[in-house]
Amino acid sequence: MKITSMLLLILIASGAMASEVDEYINEGIKLHDEGSYDKAAQQYKKALELEPNNLPALYELAFSYMVSKKNEECIEAAKKGLSFESSLQKKFTVALGSCYSQLGKTAEAIQSFEEGLNVDPTDSHLHLNIAVTFSNIRQDKKAIAHLKEAIKYSNGYSSPYYFIAEIYRSENYRIPALYFYMQFVLLEPNTRRSQDAAKKIYALLYQGLKQKENGGMDIVVNPNSPKDEGDYTAIELALSVAAAASIAEKSKDSKVDLARHTEALTSFIQICSEIEDKNLEATFTWQYAAKNMIALQNSGNFKTYSYILAARAGIQGAASWLDENQEKIKKMSNAIQSL
């Protein structure tokens, strides 16, 4: 009878402690979400005082340290978490790799992310993290390879599209950069990054043009542009022709100015939709970005999307057009769901 009573007391005490640990963790998560990372860490430490090897508390502690850039503390917590086999192993590798990366310890960061990918090779966030790390040390080919994997498994995760567009632009892959910026804005339309991407889309649109002294326009296409991601020379020429035609219609009227910008992009996508090139259609850029823009064009909705791009780029009159054409935006949103 006494033994039974003792066991009951132990079980009750154990349950009470577990409940208290969970309360500390939940309070920490709440504080973290509010941006109070130091206070969140204090709550996780209280949980760990009661249960030193509590893995959720260790992970949340490492995560708060990572976000607040307390990298050494993050590494210590993440390494302790990784000393146990658990379902949180992948998350610990992300925290560990990110903190190594923030310290500039590139080799350690890459090793950690690779260990995470060994656990789950389909994790888009891990592929993005290792891609950014490779990009920081100018190993862009490796970065692109991981960004492609991130996009394959993205499920609507927008960041890999932005970063692959950034690398393509820096390496003079004009058309792939343009397409991936457009796909990015499609996925993430209302952020500072989307404003940046939209401005870069228009810079790429007019990149191949050179004004003549007599007012004419030279179209310049780089014959030596990289072709390992596909030979987009003909499409680059089409882009510049569409842009040059729009400049010929330049006016002081903001409505005309807005129309020419949107018409240039729409005309370009229309030309692309008429191209039959099996080699191009097999490229990664075509499959994961260009194809979606062409589908929008074929559904009659790309022009609406071009006004969204114009608005994000700060082109005068575009925001008013969007306000006045809510039904077209709804129609475009419905079309996007089927992409």
Description:
The structure is a single chain. With 339 residues, the protein is an all-alpha fold. Helix content is 73%, strand content 2%. The chain has helices at residues 2-33, 37-50, 55-67, 71-82, 89-102, 106-119, 124-136, 140-152, 159-170, 174-187, 192-205, 233-247, 254-273, 278-281, 284-298, 302-312, 318-324, 326-337, and strands at 209-211, 217-219. Helix 1 packs parallel to helix 3, helix 7 (124-136) runs antiparallel to helix 8 and helix 10 (174-187) packs across helix 15. It is built from 18 helices and 2 strands.
Mean pLDDT, rounded to whole units? 87
Proportion in β-strands: under 5%
H/E series, N to C? HHHHHHHHHHHEEHHHHHHH
Strand order of the largest sheet: 1-2
Helix content: over 70%
What characterizes the major β-sheet? 2 strands, antiparallel
Total number of β-strand segments?
2
Structural class estimated from helices and strands: mainly alpha
Task: Give the terminus-to-terminus CA distance.
Answer: 68 Å
Describe the global form: elongated
Number of helices: 18
